[in-house]
Structures are given as C-alpha cells and as structure tokens.
Predict the structure.
Amino acid sequence: MDALTLWQGVQTQWRMVSEIGATGLEYEGVRASPAFRALPREQRESVFADLCAVEAAALRAWGEMRDERRRAAG
C-alpha cells in the first residue's frame, strides 16, 4: 500500500473548523484506521510520512482556492 491508497482510506479523519474547513488529519484516527493497520509494521512510518506530505499539499491547494474565492467575492 502506498500513501495515496492510505489517503483514500482515511478521508473520514479530517479535523474541520466551520469557517476555515479542513485544518489537517486527525493523526490518532489515521493510525487507528483499518487502512493504516493493514500496512506491514515496517512500512507504517514511511507511508505515514508520505501521507503527511500529501496532506500538506492538499491543505496548501485548498487554502489557495479559498483565498481566490474570497478575492473574487470582493
């Protein structure tokens, strides 16, 4: 399993704030998820680090889209 497969398996684990939206993944939930627990133990930390990189890229992109919507709204 790679980070993108894990990413798909933990989409219910987002920490949400009403005005902002997603602020990051709940790492406790990620580590407890069936998708994470299905990883071989020796791969878990490496795949988790990759997942964090995907999370950061998604948060950056969503932030840019949010900023664009605010600028467009005036």
Notes: The mean pLDDT is 94. The radius of gyration is 14 Å. The longest helix spans residues 41-73. Strands lie at 14-17, 21-25.
